[in-house]
Design goal:
There is one protein chain. The chain has about 350 residues and is of the alpha/beta class. The protein has twelve helices and twelve strands. The strands form three sheets. A six-stranded parallel sheet has the order 3-2-1-4-7-8, sandwiched between helices. α3 crosses α4 and α7 crosses α8. The radius of gyration is 24 Å and the shape is globular.
Length: about 350
């Protein structure tokens, strides 16, 4: 069993620590708030400040520190301060400790900001003397402990196999799908997860507004589409990026409905942005008739752009788009490589 330190004992930290404790791991909570520490101790849990940690008795550190937003910009001061303190602790032991970022942070943060802080503070090298990983949480605030105990997916991002192996072993007993990737991919997964949820809510709010103007039941429309649209019942539909949507229906129907809405003086901002995004991608990449043609088309586009680069060295490359993804029994494929997945 692993000896764990939870740095940041809020909702995520406590759900994480309690979940691991139930699996037999030794968990100690660390916080800067004396009231939080006292509350945890009164509940019979091991808690204190980071200065009280005995680093020779630590296998895994999980950073679950708050990363608030101020004026729309994320504040990383708290997690960076925690990383400096953890790095100072790593300097006190020869033991291989895995440091796991569970806080929500923008892509590249773990590799470009947290890891260098840990290395400078410890005087050691990540991947050799200690491990670093990004392990995003997918916990609902009102059901955090239950969600941790029964996860639907676990994402572990690290660049060294030893760290991946350690985290794989501690998460395997929870029985969820385990996705192994890089730290930046893990960070991106968390943001895309939340943003997609927000976009979906906003889209159906716009649908609701149009339905109200028509005097029809938006709940009936939404609930039925949840069962009729392939993107609802096929979870990988549209997740393979790189080509625009095409075919006989989507371009025609999106344009026609947008025109119909405008004729009435109404707004449909998400549809408008969707059409514009597709048009921009179409200027560089042709649509394909079916998902099995995606790889062939992308290879042609890459070859064309490589040829253009030889003539015009500043030519750009394409990105983004929508097309079905592919899932087999062992991997999720994407962008020319495969991310290992284990079904438990």
């Amino acid at each position: 069993m692993a000896r764990m330190v939870i740095v940041g004992s809020g909702v995520v930290g406590q759900a994480t620590g309690k979940g691991f404790s139930k699996k037999g791991h030794s968990v100690r909570y660390v916080d800067v708030n004396p009231q939080t520490i006292a509350k945890l101790r009164n509940a019979g849990l091991s808690a204190g400040t980071i200065d009280e940690v005995v680093w020779d008795n630590v296998d895994v550190v999980l950073l679950t520190v708050s990363t608030p937003s101020v004026n729309g910009k994320i504040v990383l001061d708290h997690i960076e301060a925690a990383a400096r303190q953890v790095g100072a602790g790593l300097a006190k032991t020869d033991h291989y400790v895995v440091v796991v970022v569970r806080s929500t942070v923008p892509p590249t943060t773990t590799e470009e900001r947290i890891t260098p802080i840990l290395e400078r503070a410890s005087g050691k090298d990540a991947g050799i003397d200690f491990g670093v990983a990004m392990n995003p949480e997918f916990l609902r605030q009102t059901n955090s402990e239950q969600d941790f105990a029964r996860p639907w997916i676990t994402v572990v991002g690290s660049n060294d196999s030893r760290t991946l192996h350690i985290l794989h072993d501690i998460y395997r007993p929870f029985g969820a799908l385990i996705v192994e990737c890089t730290p930046t991919e893990a960070e991106m997964i968390k943001y895309v997860n939340n943003i997609f949820n927000a976009v979906k809510i906003s889209y159906f709010n716009e649908v609701h507004d149009i339905c109200q103007k028509l005097g029809i039941d938006s709940n009936l429309v939404g609930a039925t589409v949840a069962r009729s649209a392939e993107s609802m019942w096929n979870p990988l539909y549209g997740t393979r990026g790189g080509v625009p949507y095409g075919g006989a229906c989507l371009p025609k129907d999106t344009a026609a409905f947008m025109s119909w809405v405008r004729e009435r003086g109404w707004d449909h901002l998400i549809l408008e942005a969707t059409i514009e995004t597709n048009h921009r991608l179409e200027a560089r990449v042709p649509a394909v008739a079916s998902p099995d043609k995606i790889d062939e088309m992308l290879e042609k586009v890459h070859a064309r752009e490589e040829a253009a680069q030889n003539v015009f060295p500043t030519a750009g490359v394409f990105g983004g788009g929508t097309a079905p993804g592919i899932l087999d029994g062992e991997h999720i494929s994407g962008n020319g490589k495969k991310a290992p997945i284990e079904n438990n």
